[in-house]
Amino acid sequence: MKTSKTAMWRVLGYLKPYWFTFGIGMLMYSAQLFLFPLVMATFQESVMNSILEADAQIMWDALIVLGVSVIIVMASIAIGIYVYVMASVKATKTLKRDLFRSFVNTGLEGSQSAHSGEGIAAINTEADMATEVYGNPMSNFLRCVIVIVGFSIVIFVTDWRMGVGALAIGLLAFVIQSRFTKPLARIGKDQLEANAAAVSATSNIFSGGLTIRAYNMQDRALISVDTHSGKLKFLDFKRATISAFQGLFRTVQGWLTLALIFGFGGYLVIQGTLNLANLMYLLGIVSIYVSSFGQIGQTYADLQPPIVAAGKVMARIDVSREQSVRNDNLKANGQAKPEGYEISINDFSFSYKDVEKQALQGISLSVAENKMVALVGESGSGKSTLLRAIIGMYERDEMPISVGGVAYNDVSTSAWRKNFAYVDQSCKLFDMSIGENIAMGAKGNGEIVIGNEELEKAAKRAFAHDFITEIEGGYDAPAGEKGASLSGGQKQRIAIARALIKGAPILVFDEATSALDKESEAYIMDTIYSLRNDHTILITSHNLNTIKNVDMIVVLDSGKIAEVGTHDELIDKNGIYKRLLEQNH
Ligand code: ADP
Q1: Burial class (CB in 10 A: 0-12, 13-18, 19+), 582
Q2: At what angle do helices 108-115 and 56-105 cross, to 10 degrees?
Q3: Pair 188, 211: CB distance under 8 Å
Q4: What percent of the chain has pLDDT over 70?
Q5: Quick one: which of 138, 147, 570, 582 has the most CB atoms within 10 Å?
Q6: How many CB atoms lie within 10 A of CB 53?
Q7: pLDDT for 242
């Protein structure tokens, strides 16, 4: 909780560049609860004076003053809201940018752990929830403080005896109402958690549509939705019950206020020690004064969801902070340029975060420039982990990997990743055109910064050009989720074209042909083999027959290198590789 509170201060820190406009706007907006009743109370007093003195002119004058004051107050509210909301929008934008930067900048694990469980929608909601502190809780608190301080002066100056009575009821309201804030705050927190879980359950239904139907899991999926909606409804019920009791006490508080004004105030008027016009004036402000005492505790409850959310948001931002500091330092100090592209791995062990078992143990491997190396091994033996570690997807203090003599830890992540082009089985295509999806390999961000000729050349080498030109729209046809219904094999060829256009010296193919039919696979493998003359290639393939002709085969077994050699050498060895090959047939 303490860290969450610190996180809350950090969320507030995003307002720092705009504190002046934010403060002015917030004050203008928050002062309304003080100014409006004051204007109304003054009007009531004048009306009473006009009646008592039988002078209609007083009322007309008061009406004009009222009209003008209302316009001024309303204008100040509108300007205040605009000014403070604009400042908080800017602060929210910076915070969200930092948050999502942590996803795209960090190693894969930061984003993976965030994706699991709560879901992307929940992450966005949390950021919105954390920045809610810029709005209601703050304006509510400010309003209450302004009203309590301002009206204390006004009421005591008007009549100190009424002041004492109002203060006593106010303090009572504070004590009673603050009893409700803790349970309400707890419910707020529970609702936040329950909502995140519900979003996750519903997004599972959408993302897992095919699997749910194929395995007839509809009932099970719906049960999980039922559970979450039930929990949310129950929390709603609890909140409503507590709020009902809270409302009841507010009514009592209202009666006490009326008793003070009409009972005690009326008594003072009869005694002749309080003027009736003054009583009318107090009537306009005392009840707001009293209820502000009750509401000030509400700020505490309003703050709880933003505090919880701030803790989560800041923890995510911190994931990338350390790394970006490392990257900034490296960029500032200038980075070493690799000499050649020999890959060297020296006694590299790796375990995933929060997983005890090591996924890789004591890997030492050297891949000379322009050599083609295949990693083979049973599923789970560590092939993908090793490839992803090599291309810089995992952040660890000790990364004993170098390219061309430059160690991983001595260059920024982006400089390191320039060495590699990577294609895996997922072949992510983005919601852009096919051409942009390929072109983004060259420059990132998907802008077409290269000529069509180069685009086509890469597509041709990846055996993608022919089918692309046959699709309506060709290279301009949309890819990604909204896109043309591309087959798995077509997507894979587009992804390979994207990798080729990057022009990186080291190409990494992790099951890159897994979605292809035999014929396309053979074509693509021919392409990959043709690239070996001027590229270093690392490859894994479920089909061992396709990698027989590589320069070196590395056999992984439970995260360790078990065998290394050419196809012929490993056949002679009669070990794991031979067994895997036999299973492959
Ligand atoms: P392969 O590519 O040879 O099938 P992987 O590299 O995918 O093997 O997996 C190696 C080991 O690491 C396995 O035990 C797997 O369960 C584990 N592993 C893979 N990815 C993760 C992850 N994101 N988090 C935790 N463990 C993982």
Answers
A1: exposed
A2: 130
A3: no
A4: 91
A5: 147
A6: 11
A7: 92
Q: What is the mean pLDDT of residues 156-183?
A: 93
Return the pLDDT at 161.
96
Give me the helix-helix angle, 160-207 and 218-258, nearest 10°: 170
Nearest residue (CA) to ligand 1, atom 22: 352
pTM of full prediction above 0.70: no
Could you tell me how many residues make up the chain? 585
More confident residue, 520 or 362: 362
pLDDT in tens, 65-84: 999 999 999 999 999 999 99
Question: Is residue 418 within 6 Å of ligand 1 at its C-beta?
Answer: no
Q: Pairing state of beta strands 506-510 and 420-423? A: parallel
Q: Which two tokens stand for residue 526?
A: 């021919």
CA–centroid distance, 173 to ligand 1, in Å, is: 59
Candidate of 353, 383, 385 to mutate for ligand 1, largest count of ligand atoms within 8 Å of Cβ: 385
Assess whether the C-beta atom of 523 lies below 6 angstroms from ligand 1: no
Angle at 319 between CA 314 and CA 325, to 5 degrees: 105
Ligand 1 contacts CB of residue 379 (under 6 A): yes
Q: What is the pLDDT of residues 276-320, one digit of tens each?
A: 999 999 998 999 999 999 888 778 778 888 888 898 888 888 876
Whole-number pLDDT of residue 173: 92
Instruction: Report the C-alpha gap between 311 and 3 in whole angstroms.
Output: 7
Q: Whose CA is nearest to atom 24 of ligand 1?
A: 352
Strands (E), 338-405: 343-350, 360-367, 372-377, 401-403
Residue 114 confidence (pLDDT) above 50: no
382 touches ligand 1 (CB under 6 Å): yes
352 CB less than 6 Å from ligand 1? Answer: yes
CA of 380 to the centre of ligand 1 (A): 5
